[in-house]
Amino acid sequence: MSVSPMWVPVITKVVDVLGSLFGKKDKQAGAEIQKMQAILEDLKKQNKSQAKLIDEYLNEAKQARKEIARLNKLIEKPIQDRKKKVDFVNGLKLEIKNTEKTLLIGSKGKGKSTFLWLQGKGPKPEKSMKDGTTKLVYGDDFIDTVGINWTVESLLKLFVIFIYRGIPSDVLVVHNDRIVGPIQKLAAVGVATPMAAIMRDMSLFYELVEDGAITIQEGKNGDIDIPERKLKFLYNLDAAKEISGLSLCKTVMHHNMDAAIEERSNAKVAPFAGLLTVLGQRFTAPSEADGLSPLKEHLFLLIHLFEKKYREKKDGELDCLNNATLIEAVEM
Questions:
Q1: Three-state secondary-structure class, residue 144
Q2: Which comes out higher in pLDDT, residue 253 or 76?
Q3: What gap in Å lies between CA 212 and CA 209, rounded to an integer?
């Protein structure tokens, strides 16, 4: 199934509006989304087969807008000792570095470690109740994150680490068939058109491997070959086909992701372009005189918190990603 071509520009516009919410009054952005929602409601009547997916999309957009409004409310009142904090953060002279690395991002247990193993870029995951990734791993051409909670706040904390370590060139979301939510959260912070690997239940896949129902072989480059007819036990191919029709992401599997990255690079697809525009060549705290950018204000406060509480710890990055909050950053 594919979405009517009429829907694509409307859906894309929703992403654009979400990505600019940090720079608009919530009421203004909300009015724009309501107008587009009315258009989509009318189009749904013409394409009933896609109604459920579009409803999910619009609901996720609404939830993202609510979270952004809550976060923006935190910085409405004056920040204590703001000038002192601004001078401190600006004194860090944080140069923004681009990398040629693809970010792998997903919730715990959704298959990131498995995906890297299948690509020959990581060890075979072991059975465990714990998260397979316990720290950010900067490989030769990828960044593997810890399991993330799909909130705007969690993504902002991740961006703080990127400001220190380098901004990815592309992004792969590893998730199940409810991938609309993660795509919306990325759109809310200005990261558009990610790649997506839509996985099935990992435990079932490994059971089939252990039982011999799926035979795997190591390829020439250390990657793992899986018979094409067996890919349906690892990836949700129907969901991938359906979500592709929305033009919100590029669906991939482990054996074709490298080709997709090259194709996107040649086509100048740059998911983090919006973030890079906001950050500039060196991170500086937003000026009250110039009008505060809410996105940059949040990042400024989180950088200050990271420096003061987390950076010098042994597992400071992980601790920050798991435990830091914007409320704490505002009140520090």
A1: strand
A2: 253
A3: 5
Q: What are phi and psi of 213, to 5 degrees?
A: -70, -25
Pair of tokens at residue 48: 């009933």
**Closest to 124 in 3D by CA, of 222, 29, 270:** 222
Three-class DSSP category at 137: strand
Distances (CA, A) of 22 to 12, 65, 329: 17, 10, 17
Q: pLDDT category, 99, cuts 50, 70, 90?
A: very high
- Give the dihedral sign, CA 194/195/198/203: negative
Phi, psi of 63 (to 5 degrees): -65, -40
Contact 33, 65 (CB under 8 A): yes
Q: Are 135 and 158 in contact (CB under 8 A)?
A: no
Task: Name the residue with tokens 């009421």.
Answer: 27
Whole-prediction pTM: 0.86
Q: Which of 27, 5, 30 is nearest to 17 (CA)?
A: 30
Per residue in 38-49, pLDDT (tens digit) is 666 666 676 666
- Across 244-269, average pLDDT: 90
β-partners of residue 172 are: 104, 195
Of 303, 298, 277, 281, the residue nearest 160 (C-alpha): 303
Q: What pairs with residue 282 in β-bridges? A: 95
Torsion over CA: 44, 47, 51, 54 (sign): negative
Provide the b/e sequence for 146-185 (b: ≥16 CB within 10 Å): bbbebebbbbbbbbbbbbbebbbbbbbbbbbeebbbbbbb
Using CB atoms within 10 A of its CB, is residue 8 exposed (0-12), middle (13-18) or buried (19+)?
Answer: middle
DSSP structure string for 35-48: HHHHHHHHHHTT-G
Q: How far apart are the first and last CA of the chain?
A: 51
Cβ partners under 8 Å of residue 24, min gap 6? none
